[in-house]
C-alpha cells in the first residue's frame, strides 16, 4: 500500500514531461490550423470568434471592474491632493488680499481726510474715444501710428493716447477721419515725468528705439533699475500720474526706460481728453478790433483810436 503513491508519481512524471515538451509545438500547430481554417472558411471563423468573445466577455468585464475602480480611486486621490494644494494657495492669496484691502481702505480714508483738510477740488473726469490702429507709419526715423478716428469723432490735437497698461503717446495730427499718434519712443517726443519713490523730475526723451532715455535728470539724485515712471503734468500738455514705464538700466550711456506698452502689440488705443491745452494751445488768429491799433513806444504798448 505504501508503494501505491510512488508508483502513480512515477507514471505521471513521464506523461507530464511529454506534455511540457510538446505543449509549445501543440499550440503552434493549433494556431496554424486555425489560420488555415480561417482562410478556408471565413464564416465559420467569424462565428467561432463571436462565440469565444461572448464566452470571455463576462470574465473580462469582471476583471476590468476592479481595475476601473482602482483607476478612479487613484484619480480621485490625485484630484483631492491637487485641491488641497490649491486650497492652501487660495487661502494664502486671500490673506494677502485682505491685508492689501485693509491697507487700501486705510489709505482711502486718509486720502479723504487730507483732501477735506486741503479743501481739494478734484478735476473733471476725462472724456475718451477708442479707436483702432489702421497703420504703423513708423520707420527708422519716425515712431507714429494712424488711427481710424478724426475730428468728426471728437479727436483733437494734444489728447493723450493710452491703453490699459499705460501711456502710448499723444495726438500730433488730426484729420476728419484719421489721427496720427506720436509715440513716446519717437525722437521728437519730450514728456515731463516723475521718477521713483522720490518723485524726481526729469524729461523722457524718445530716441527712435524701444528704450527711450531720461534726460535733464538733476545731479545728486539717485535712480535705480525698477523705479516706476509717471507723467508729472508740468507744461499742461498731459495730466499727472499717467503710467509710462520702468527704469531698466543706469550707466554711462544714460538712463534707459522700458515702456509698459509695446509698440508692436497695439491694436486699439483710447484717446483721452483731459481738457488741457498747455503748451499746445495755438495763439488766437482773430484780428484786433478796427477801432484800436496797437503800437510800441519806448518798450511800452499803447492803443490809438481812429478819429
Key structural traits:
6-stranded antiparallel barrel, 2 domains, elongated, disordered C terminus, 37% helix, 6-stranded antiparallel β-barrel, 307 residues, Thrombin, subunit H, 2 helices, 27% strand, 14 strands, alpha+beta
Task: Determine the CATH topology of the largest domain.
Answer: Thrombin, subunit H
Structural class: alpha+beta
* Number of DSSP strand runs: 14
How many domains, in number, for the residues? 2
Any idea what the CATH architecture of the largest domain is?
Answer: Beta Barrel
What is the C-level CATH assignment of the largest domain?
Mainly Beta
Q: Beta fraction of the residues?
A: 25-35%
Low confidence ranges: 284-307
Give helix and strand order, one letter per element, not per position: HHEEEEEEEEEEEEEE
Question: Can you list the strand order of the major beta sheet?
Answer: 1-2-5-4-3-12
Write the layout of secondary structure elements.
Blueprint: H1 3-40, H2 42-118, E1 127-136, E2 144-147, E3 160-162, E4 167-174, E5 179-183, E6 190-195, E7 200-205, E8 213-215, E9 228-231, E10 243-251, E11 254-259, E12 268-273, E13 292-297, E14 300-305
Antiparallel strand pairs: 1-2, 1-12, 2-5, 3-4, 3-12, 4-5, 6-7, 6-9, 7-8, 8-11, 9-10, 10-11, 13-14
Amino acid at each position: 500500500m505504501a508503494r501505491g503513491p510512488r508508483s502513480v508519481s512515477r507514471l505521471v512524471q513521464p506523461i507530464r514531461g511529454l506534455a511540457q515538451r510538446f505543449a509549445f509545438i501543440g499550440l503552434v500547430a493549433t494556431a496554424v490550423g486555425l489560420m488555415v481554417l480561417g482562410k478556408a472558411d471565413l464564416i465559420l471563423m467569424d462565428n467561432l470568434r463571436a462565440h469565444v468573445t461572448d464566452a470571455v466577455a463576462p470574465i473580462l468585464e469582471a476583471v476590468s471592474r476592479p481595475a476601473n475602480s482602482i483607476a478612479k480611486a487613484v484619480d480621485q486621490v490625485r484630484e483631492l491632493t491637487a485641491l488641497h494644494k490649491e486650497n492652501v494657495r487660495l487661502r494664502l492669496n486671500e490673506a494677502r488680499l485682505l491685508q492689501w484691502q485693509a491697507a487700501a481702505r486705510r489709505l482711502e480714508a486718509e486720502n479723504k481726510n487730507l483732501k477735506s483738510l486741503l479743501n481739494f477740488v478734484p478735476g473733471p473726469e476725462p472724456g475718451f474715444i477708442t479707436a483702432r490702429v489702421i497703420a504703423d507709419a513708423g520707420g527708422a526715423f519716425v515712431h507714429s501710428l494712424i488711427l481710424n478716428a478724426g475730428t468728426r469723432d471728437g479727436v483733437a490735437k494734444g489728447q493723450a493716447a493710452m491703453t490699459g497698461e499705460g501711456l502710448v503717446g499723444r495726438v500730433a495730427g488730426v484729420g476728419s477721419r484719421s489721427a496720427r499718434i506720436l509715440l513716446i519712443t519717437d525722437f521728437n517726443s519730450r514728456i515731463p515725468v516723475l521718477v521713483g519713490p522720490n518723485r524726481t523730475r526729469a524729461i523722457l526723451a524718445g530716441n527712435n528705439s524701444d528704450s527711450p532715455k531720461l534726460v535733464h535728470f538733476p545731479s545728486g539724485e539717485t535712480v535705480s533699475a525698477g523705479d516706476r515712471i509717471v507723467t508729472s503734468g508740468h507744461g499742461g500738455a498731459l495730466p499727472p500720474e499717467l503710467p509710462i514705464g520702468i527704469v531698466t538700466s543706469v550707466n554711462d550711456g544714460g538712463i534707459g526706460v522700458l515702456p509698459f506698452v509695446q509698440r508692436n502689440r497695439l491694436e486699439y488705443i483710447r484717446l483721452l481728453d483731459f481738457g488741457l491745452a498747455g503748451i499746445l494751445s495755438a495763439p488766437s488768429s482773430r484780428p484786433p478790433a478796427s477801432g484800436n491799433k496797437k503800437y510800441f513806444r519806448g518798450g511800452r504798448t499803447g492803443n490809438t483810436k481812429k478819429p
